[in-house]
Specification:
The structure holds 2 protein chains of 2 kinds. Chain A is mainly alpha-helical. The longest helix of chain A has 32 residues. The chains are: A mainly alpha, B alpha+beta. At the A-B interface, helix 1 and helix 6 of A face helix 8 and strand 7 of B.
């Protein structure tokens, strides 16, 4: 029988693997949404995308920038950087997540590296493969991982990233709330992993009355609270 | 068969998908490379394998007996079979291991024995690897994949199923663990050249993949530290960290890769360490010369597998032969591994040959010389053409507390350079599946 003990370092990697794979999935989704809106010449949406993903890398022109946001591995806000970080965490977890699950992250990275080497332009259609692999990654997690702690850490990481990105992109309250309720249920089942006091404090902030993604002070506060929910291994 | 050969790109894509890589440091920079797979298998007949299997078991039994003897009674030295300077001047000899009794008297649990097949069909042993031999994971995963891409190739069961390596390994670990605790595979970390293998073997054996810092020793027992500050007893450690880095309290004090006080726990018999400490004395290239003598000495049997014809400059007769024939011999530095420190006399200029002779004269114990075996070339596909290249075979012998098993497979490595005999992955080689025929 497989032993289920998990080291703090592996737990940390599971959490970040959950976060980065969700980041890749959502960033692709948001990029696609942004590019769609740009068809109608909505450049404001594009600037908002750059700001919200935290892009601080200047590019000489928009074509370079579009490419850089996907393939520039020196830009921490690019999609390839997020996949690299997901892979950094996944690769040390093979014995926990299985080779087929790891394979979806590896394939994504190889696809991006290969495109980058060949100088392939980023097309929305091509990037659909990445979205499919991220979804397949989560399907594989669901299908192949039976350790409660491993699943929980991945899922809590995913949900924290999900809420984080939704708040940055000013999603409406009901979308935040449904993700938060799911996060709350995972945290309550794993009181050794998450701080229930901190969860409770965060819950007080995520209410229709308080929710205000246009207020930078509020956003920073909530994002910080989200980022410090995990207590296991500290 | 044709389908499998046609599917080689597909196999390599699957290998890429599963992250089947090895790391190489070049000029201080770490790079991961795919280990290129060639889909034309090496085929070993049932008859040949029977001889190889029996010969390998014999050899590994003798090597384990030698290790026990060297760290206990030293009869083989006292009886004049092996000169003591070959033992005590070996870098792999560890005085700290004197008198320690590993479980089942097993030192080399996983032995990677390198063989080549001569053009006349004779198999020769090139090298014994008894410390941390790597490479089993590549044929393991390659077979999983080739069965997927070309199922018809394997339909009639002529080819021995090699998908049991993890089971063999697990059973061996359990046999020396004796129920004390969990099995772990200790890796130095993801930037180790064989990290894929460490993680894959952990996945397949169900052992916990442990990193430096994950374990602690208390009361001479080893524990794995969990997320919630719980500690679980460790019964067997398949370590992929070299002896000198494995315990900073006993060996290299600056090492961050080991487990402090692990050696004490091992010494007390509270944890099995796979492979044991101090094995380097038996796979020293100088000691290799004496393995046939060990077989006769410990087992009272004639060696089934031959060494490559080897000369030791230590012996006067050999010394003179080497200096007279250096241009036709292969000279090996006994302290090097991984294909490094191997020089073919025929490739050297007269000046370089003279320099090498000087080195041998100055430090005769540091070198061995071997006849160049004209080993059989194997076909590989290169740029859509079949070409022949040099290849070796690393066979894996797994020794548990009560059994010695040879895995019906192995790592066939080939040189991609048509002029080279060096097949190591770190030197740009590729690998093939090894088919052992059932009948």
């Amino acid at each position: 029988m497989k032993n289920t003990i998990l080291s703090p370092a592996k737990a940390n990697s599971l959490f970040w693997l959950g976060r980065y794979t969700e980041r890749v999935y959502l960033q692709l989704h948001l990029l696609r949404r942004c590019l769609d809106q740009m068809i109608d010449d909505n450049s404001k949406e594009y600037d908002l995308y750059l700001y919200n993903i935290g892009n601080q890398t200047p590019y000489p022109n928009m074509a370079e920038e579009r490419r850089g946001l996907v393939y520039d591995n020196k830009n921490p806000a690019s999609i390839i950087s997020c996949v690299e970080r997901a892979n950094d965490n996944a690769v040390i977890l093979r014995d926990e997540i299985t080779s087929p699950t790891l394979g979806y992250v590896q394939m994504s990275l190889e696809f991006l590296r290969d495109n980058s080497r060949k100088g392939v332009d980023s097309s929305v259609e091509d990037l659909q493969k990445l979205t499919d692999w991220m979804l397949a990654f989560w399907g594989s997690v669901d299908e192949r991982i039976f350790s409660g702690n491993v699943r929980s850490l991945l899922m809590i990481g995913k949900l924290i990233e999900h809420i984080d990105m939704y708040i940055r992109f000013k999603y409406p309250f009901d979308r935040i709330e449904e993700a938060f309720l799911l996060l709350e249920s995972h945290c309550r089942l794993n009181e050794k992993i998450c701080s229930i006091d901190d969860l409770q404090a965060l819950k007080m902030q995520i209410t229709p009355e308080f929710y205000n993604p246009d207020d930078i002070a509020y956003t920073n506060k909530v994002l910080n609270m989200l980022g410090s929910l995990i207590i296991a291994g500290k | 068969m044709r389908t499998l050969i046609e599917s080689r790109n597909s196999v390599n894509q699957w290998l890429e998908r599963y992250g089947v890589r090895f790391g190489v440091y070049k000029n201080g920079v770490f790079n991961e490379q795919l280990f290129p797979f060639d889909s034309i298998p090496r085929i070993i007949t049932h008859k040949d394998w029977g001889m190889i299997e029996t010969g390998l078991i014999q050899r590994v039994k003798a090597l384990n007996a030698f290790l026990w003897d060297i760290y206990h009674e030293k009869k083989i030295i006292k009886d004049g079979v092996i000169p003591q300077e070959f033992v005590y001047s070996s870098k792999g000899y560890m005085p700290q291991c004197e008198g320690i009794d590993p479980i089942g008297r097993v030192y080399s649990h996983i032995s990677g024995i390198d063989l080549v097949e001569g053009k006349d069909g004779t198999w020769y042993i090139l090298e014994d690897n008894l410390r941390i031999p790597s490479g089993a994971s590549y044929p393991m995963i390659a077979r999983e994949i080739t069965r997927k891409v070309s199922p018809t190739t394997f339909v009639d069961s002529k080819i021995a199923d090699n998908r049991n390596y993890a089971k063999i390994l697990r059973e061996m670990m359990d046999s020396v663990n004796e129920g004390r605790g969990i099995n772990v595979i200790l890796t130095p970390g993801r930037y180790n050249s064989a990290f894929f293998e460490h993680s894959y073997l952990a996945e397949k054996t169900g052992a916990v993949l442990a990193f430096p810092g994950d374990m602690t020793v208390e009361d001479d027992m080893v524990f794995y530290k969990g997320l919630f500050k719980e500690k679980v007893r460790v019964g067997a450690i398949y370590r992929r960290v070299s002896d000198e880095y494995l315990d900073p309290m006993e060996f290299e004090s600056t090492s961050l890769l080991g487990v402090p006080n692990l050696f004490q726990a091992y010494k007390k018999g509270n944890v099995a360490v796979i492979n044991g400490f101090g094995n380097g004395v038996a796979d020293d290239k100088g000691i290799y010369y004496f393995v046939p003598k060990m077989i006769r000495y410990y087992l009272d049997e004639e060696p089934i597998l031959h060494n490559a014809p080897t000369y030791l400059p230590y012996y006067r007769e050999d010394y003179e032969y080497i200096l007279d024939n250096i241009s036709s011999l292969v000279i090996k530095d006994v302290s090097e591994a991984g294909g490094y420190g191997v020089v073919f006399g025929r490739d050297l200029t007269p000046e370089k040959l003279a320099e090498l002779k000087d080195l041998i004269v100055r430090e005769p114990r540091r070198w061995i010389a071997q006849e160049v075996i004209d080993f059989k070339d194997l076909e590989i596909i290169e740029d859509e053409h079949r070409v022949e290249r040099k290849a070796d075979l690393r066979a894996f012998v797994v020794t548990g507390a009560n059994s010695v098993k040879v895995w019906k497979s192995g790592l066939t490595r080939f040189s991609r350079n048509p002029d080279s005999f060096v097949v190591n992955s770190s030197q740009g080689g590729g690998f093939k599946d090894t088919w052992i025929l059932n009948r």
